[in-house]
Amino acid sequence: MDFSIPGPLAETLSHARAFLDEAVLPREHHFLTHEFYEIEPELSLLRAEVKRRGLWLPQAPKSLGGLGLSVLEHGLMSEVLGRTPYGHYLFGCQAPDAGNMELLHQFGTDAQKAQWLLPLTRGELRSCFSMTEPETPGSNPTELACRAVRTGDCFTITGRKWFTTAADGAAFAIVMAVTNPDATRHSRASQLIVPTSAEGFEIVRNIPVMGHPGQGWASHSEIAYRDVKVPIANLLGPEGAGFLLAQERLGPGRIHHCMRWIGICERAFELMCKRATSRRLDQGRPLSHKQFIQGYVAESRAAINAARLMVLEAAWKIDHAGFAAARVDISLIKFFVANVMMKVVDRAIQVHGALGLTTDTVLAHYYAHERGARIYDGPDEVHKAAAGRRILDGYANDGDA
Ligand SMILES: Cc1cc2nc3c(=O)[nH]c(=O)nc-3n(C[C@H](O)[C@H](O)[C@H](O)COP(=O)(O)OP(=O)(O)OC[C@H]3O[C@@H](n4cnc5c(N)ncnc54)[C@H](O)[C@@H]3O)c2cc1C
User: Alpha carbon 286 to chain centroid distance?
Assistant: First the structure.
């Protein structure tokens, strides 16, 4: 395995980082202390600049106007963009749109691509992915209750979803709904494209998360689907393939999330070290002279390095042998990196003292908004159980040694 970064990619990554450092970090405090719609016009100007610099849509194929990066390459880009909470949004590869683009690209009809995918890739509209429900376990989506009943040439969708990220202001939702309750567990649901302007689509509320009300792209909504009618042409992929498509959507997404979290770790680490060396504690001696702090720094560095190599190896495996070969690795990095991130951000806050809890640094934002990493895309326990089961299966199949 060779993780050295080829020249042209290194150049792209360095351009991306320079853009964030020059144009975004100086405005980050303003962005963090204002709601999404207040800052959207400025974010749009920055997006235009990203396009002008040829850095737009790193994850998407060139045929869609993207940079056509591989899973590993986009992982490295994600690490750079994770440096600020706005990196992915500004480069057009933010969740949940990036996953929806991938779904539409892979499974959409020509008409669906023309209507939804192309404007999405141009950043002209936003989308959301509506699967989790308040009344059924999100960690087991085979138990969804939301129904889509086919009559004539349309589906009628009835149900309630929540934690639909970025639904506020989105043009359409990709909704997971049960189309055949009698089918086998993994074939009960389908995915449907639902314009948010459809009659019966109602955002009940943006759910406050860790005390933050949420708005626009930076929100998580509860949505009522009250007899929402969509034409059969809005079925995404085959009927009954909803679960399969959801897995496809999450595969590369997990690598990109993990590398984004590594980017967050690096930013928190940098802030921790700068604060430790600049804060004078007693008689002019800096905080960094304390062994406790040196321990935080060493433990954080070791954990970030280990986590980063694990993610790169998983991405490399996907690029070389496909997703199936990397299943265990993907589960391992999903819980491992999320926990490393929480620990590193927590230590960085500790080193900052009370300052760490304010909006004067990005740390409190990361602490509040990234806690979800241990829950979404499969909670820690689900990934640990899945990885453990697969590893043990290998031993059981070996028979008695
Ligand atoms: C920030 C954020 C953004 C999100 N965005 C979206 C989105 O855009 N679209 C969408 O559809 N959903 C979204 N979600 C929802 C997310 O996918 C679910 O929260 C997740 O799947 C867990 O489902 P649940 O909350 O219903 O928890 P439950 O399924 O009720 O699980 C609760 C807890 O039980 C434990 N648990 C679960 N299964 C097991 C097991 N097998 N063994 C042991 N313990 C277990 C875990 O500790 C878990 O946290 C988002 C969530 C968050 C936090």
Answer: 37
SS3 128: strand
Residues 393 and 254 in one domain: yes
Task: State which ligand 1 atom lies nearest to the alpha carbon of 161.
Answer: 11
From CA 164, how far away is CA 176, in angstroms rounded?
11
Q: Whose CA is nearest to atom 45 of ligand 1?
A: 381
76 Cα–ligand 1 center, Å: 27
pTM confidence score: 0.95
- Give ligand 1 pocket residues (Cβ under 6 A): 96, 129-132, 137-139, 163-165, 220, 372, 375-376, 379, 381-382, 385
Cα–Cα distance, 227 to 28 (Å, whole number): 42
The alpha carbon of 376 and the centre of ligand 1 are apart by a number of angstroms equal to: 5
Residue numbers of the domain that contains 354:
244-398
Atom of ligand 1 nearest to the CA of 95: 8
Q: Whose CA is nearest to atom 1 of ligand 1?
A: 372
Q: In this predicted model, what pLDDT tens digit does every residue of 51-83 receive, in sequence order?
A: 999 999 999 999 999 999 988 899 999 999 999
Output the pLDDT for position 2: 80
pLDDT reading at 399 higher than 70: no
Q: Which of 201, 236, 271 is the last residue of a domain?
A: 236
CA dihedral 256, 171, 131, 179 (to 10 degrees): -130
- Name, in order, each residue with C-beta under 8 angstroms of 268's C-beta and a sequence gap of 6 or more: 341, 344, 345, 347, 348, 363, 366
Cα(134)–Cα(137) distance, rounded to whole angstroms?
A: 8
Distance in Å, CA 384 to ligand 1 centroid: 14
Q: Which residue has the higher pLDDT, 344 or 252?
A: 344
Nearest alpha carbon to residue 137 among 370, 381, 384, 369: 381
Q: How far is the CA of 226 from the centre of ligand 1 (A)?
A: 24
Number of domains in the chain: 3
